């Protein structure tokens, strides 16, 4: 129950939308009195019988007297006439809103009546919801739930009016968005009006053919799906097409232009470009699907999924191939895109993060085929072939995409903006913006604290610099080196400690000369990349969860096949070995320029607490959440120092892990740059370590997967919320973990 917002509400018109809103007002007690006026006596009678209103009028003037909210819920074309009638009778502080699907013409109608100075209470609105049926009986109290309502406040609108209407729509469980009138009409012209126009047009085109009967008879699902909306009300669409004429004509022009491009590709039998266009559209549609399906990994996220793991004895066994390395997958797309020639990638990680990078390059005009079963083909456009993106580049959860692309985009001839989800929007971007500015880049972090969105002005001449990295960050190093490809002269960085060197290795694989002398890495700008084949190894960071799972489970026996064991990534192996894990690295070999091996790990002995070696911190930087679970099961204390970087990952991994461990009954003390964990293990005793409880993953995939492993040694039910982000790096996690013997139940909202 939301509580009274209005004293007297007057609906002018009481069809589907009006009567649904009246139902919300009743249920949520938003108004003391609700009245309505409509031309149909029958509607008024029905509304009275349904208990929606206390009085009904055929004259709107009677309805609006003393009302503090007037809702115009009638066809948009009637707006001006009704406003003219009711204007002299409106109370002084009345709020007036409407529900029409075009907004510019509603504002015009109001101006024709009120003059240029519109009443402060006038705030046009548009609930984006509908149903097959119309009329007062069709109304539903949940019509707006989980739908968007756009309010278009005007410069004259009072904040109080906007706030009250926002509260009203929120009480209807709608998501309220504010936008200016022009933007509203442009967005709707493209997303709603143009598709309707195209559907009417296609059906008309077919209906005019002589063989139309045959065509309709044989038309299959594609035609049915595409043309469904051509069965909508012609009068309404007639009105909308005129009401939003300017924006719709623009949208139609855009459609004609795009259609000509497509037509030409078919005429020329340009297979590569056609595949590129269709692949790009398909990917954009899939991306959109996530948002439509309310699994908004790529949106400013809501929590949509949780894991539940029950107590009970579990085994952990089997041979597994975890998905491709995230860092290498990102780079394969970036370098393939700016190379000359065609790059083939195998083992590509089809997780949301790497897909965000892939989508960004498609948006910049690169033709990319796949991914299909880990295979991607990138038709490189060369160092100067990227095109200006048409809108902001959405990086989802991915810090790697945003930091590396900051460097690359700073050197382009066009402007760009990058945005991210809730977690990425909190992450520091000045660490990369600062050195890029020293190179001459025009880059701004437009979030509150040097955080995203990142906004870049193109056409700058970059100059090579030397930069002493203040933190051990492969992302910052790589972002600078990427900008250095286009900069004049030499660009070099010195790292405080070695970090993952995938950028250096892969640039060399693309034929670019990169020098590494101790901790100093340098390259000369102005060269070019030549396409190559990239084999992405399995991600050691994903394998780490299984290593820890096996290390803490009695009798476990797990082999992780063909895992990347690049020496800048193997800190987790070294640390687990120091803790006494029964772990061997077998069949070491080279694949696609990166060392790989099978990792074999068995649960034969209790781990012991250690002071984790600081020189391993950058080499195990993503594996600490999992290692903290191992430490909790170890005998004695584990101390981590020198790892302040953990506080600025997808979440503050020190605090979030400490909170979760405490919930599960493990004593620990977070420090500025690490943590002290009081291990609960006892030599030879494999009984449970963790209790039960609800863990919040804070939009961090590695937190979710680490606490899943605690489910191998728990006495109570462990519930982990916000697990949808697991798909950013390890889409098959639950499937493989359950095959090994962990029963994770996945619940979707
Ligand atoms: C990455 C570098 C690391 C790591 C991240 C991937 C990369 O980040 O944590 O998951 O691909 O370069 P930092 O550069 O912030 O240490």
What does this entry look like structurally?
It is a single chain. α4 (79-86) packs parallel to α5 (104-114) and α16 (430-438) runs parallel beside α17. The protein folds into four domains: 6-179, Rossmann fold, CATH 3.40.50; 187-269, 6-phosphogluconate dehydrogenase C-terminal like domain (6-phosphogluconate dehydrogenase C-terminal fold, Orthogonal Bundle); 305-322 and 538-748, UDP-n-acetylglucosamine1-carboxyvinyl-transferase, Chain (Alpha-beta prism); 326-535, Enolpyruvate transferase domain (UDP-n-acetylglucosamine1-carboxyvinyl-transferase, Chain, Alpha-beta prism), CATH 3.65.10. Strands 3-2-1-4-5 form a five-stranded parallel β-sheet. It has a four-stranded mixed β-sheet with strand order 31-32-9-33. It is built from 24 helices and 33 strands. It is globular and about 85 Å long. Bound molecules: shikimate-3-phosphate (S3P). Residues 327, 400, 473-476, 478, 500, 621-622, 645 line the site of shikimate-3-phosphate.
Layout of SSEs?
Blueprint: E1 6-12, H1 16-27, E2 31-37, H2 41-49, E3 55-57, H3 60-64, E4 69-72, H4 79-86, E5 95-98, H5 104-114, E6 125-127, E7 148-151, H6 159-171, E8 175-178, H7 181-207, H8 212-218, H9 221-227, H10 234-243, H11 245-267, H12 271-292, E9 305-309, E10 317-320, H13 326-338, E11 339-340, E12 342-346, H14 352-363, E13 367-372, E14 375-379, E15 393-394, H15 399-410, E16 416-419, H16 430-438, E17 442-445, E18 454-457, E19 466-468, H17 474-484, E20 490-494, H18 502-509, E21 514-517, E22 520-524, E23 529-530, E24 533-535, H19 540-551, E25 557-564, H20 571-578, E26 582-591, E27 594-602, H21 624-633, E28 635-640, H22 653-663, E29 668-671, E30 674-680, E31 693-696, H23 701-710, E32 718-721, H24 733-740, E33 744-748
Parallel strand pairs: 1-2, 1-4, 2-3, 4-5, 7-8, 10-25, 11-23, 12-24, 15-16, 19-20, 31-32
Antiparallel strand pairs: 6-7, 9-32, 9-33, 12-14, 13-14, 16-18, 17-18, 20-22, 21-22, 25-27, 26-27, 28-30, 29-30
Bound molecules: shikimate-3-phosphate.
Shikimate-3-phosphate (S3P) is lined by residues 327, 400, 473-476, 478, 500, 621-622, 645.
Subcellular location: Cytoplasm
GO cellular component, one term: cytoplasm
Keywords: Amino-acid biosynthesis, Aromatic amino acid biosynthesis, Cytoplasm, NAD, Oxidoreductase, Transferase, Tyrosine biosynthesis
